[in-house]
Design brief:
38% helix, 19% strand, 2 domains, alpha+beta, globular, 8 helices, Aminoglycoside 3'-phosphotransferase, Chain: A, domain 2, 6-stranded antiparallel sheet, Phosphorylase Kinase, domain 1, 3-stranded antiparallel sheet
């Protein structure tokens, strides 16, 4: 299900998978006694599907994620449920869960979440020139990220081993970045996961401990193709101009370059490579061959 692949067989497989995922969403709606209220949207690589849905207690968000059975466990599988423990953040609350097996090849997890007010900053993870949040929104975002960073948790989102793999894959076997400081992070803070008027933070699958500055670095790297917006991120998140922030940006750059192999954000590949070269120099990291 590579977004960049135009092979007719792949396109047909994607079409059938979308139909199947729509049926899964309908099954989940029936289980919860909900009525799907709008056209569904699909997540990364068609792994998930979601839509607003109406019930006796009002409008909610209904989501179904599909995984192979061997992957249907762990932090990403229970992230939204575990995030219910977080307080004082503008985020959805998980209301109900339903799981079922599709033979021996897929495991499905349906989640009902509270529906936040506000509108999405972007239909995709990427920035675009029309995104122009007002100063109070930026301050609220900075405060939310800081509050999250100080929240204790035993969930691990990103560890040193994962950083080593991504950095070496992107920049060569001799490239090494040792993380010195850690905090609690959202770990996927891109524009498609942010709401405006008011601020909202969506998709808590991956949250947990990660390098200091990860969330600011993620938003910044996703904004590189829109320089004015990228500068706004730098203005409100001074951690980006620290050694911790440089390490986080190098990891995020490596992660997004890895994602580009699945067809994601091709317009970011060159800006990410250019940015990574400057980071490697600032951190005195020697890229490998």
């Amino acid at each position: 299900m590579n977004a960049a692949d135009t092979d007719p067989d792949v396109e047909e497989a994607d079409r059938r998978f979308r139909i199947w995922m729509r049926k899964n969403l309908e099954q989940a709606a029936h289980h919860f006694g909900l009525t799907i209220a709008a056209e569904p949207t699909f997540g990364w690589l068609l792994r998930s599907i979601g839509a607003p849905a109406d019930g006796t207690e009002g409008r909610m968000w209904l989501r179904v994620v599909s995984e192979r059975p061997e992957w249907a466990h762990g932090r990403a599988w229970t992230g939204n449920a575990d995030a219910n423990a977080l307080r004082g953040l503008p985020k959805p609350h998980l209301l109900d869960v339903y799981e079922w097996a599709e033979g021996d090849w897929r495991r499905q997890r349906a989640e009902v979440l509270s529906l936040l007010p506000g509108t999405s900053c972007s239909p995709t993870a990427d920035a675009h020139p029309g995104i122009a949040p007002p100063p109070p929104w930026w301050k609220d975002l900075r405060d939310a990220v800081s509050r999250l960073a100080e929240t204790p948790t035993d969930r691990i989102s990103i560890d040193q081993d994962k950083i080593d793999r991504r950095v070496r894959d992107a920049f060569g076997d001799s490239a090494e970045v040792r993380i010195e400081h850690w905090e609690t992070v959202h770990a996927d803070l891109h524009w498609g996961n942010l709401l405006i008027e008011p601020l909202g933070l969506l998709d808590w699958e991956l949250w947990g401990r990660g390098p200091v500055g990860t969330d600011a670095a993620t938003l910044y790297c996703y904004s590189l193709a829109v320089p004015d917006l990228a500068q706004k991120v730098r203005d409100y998140f001074p951690v980006l101009d620290t050694p911790d922030g440089h390490r986080a940006q190098l990891y995020v750059s490596a992660r997004l370059l890895h994602r580009s192999g699945f067809g994601d954000h091709p317009h970011l590949i060159e800006p990410l490579r250019h940015h990574a070269r400057a980071l490697l120099t600032s951190l005195n990291v020697r890229p490998g061959q």
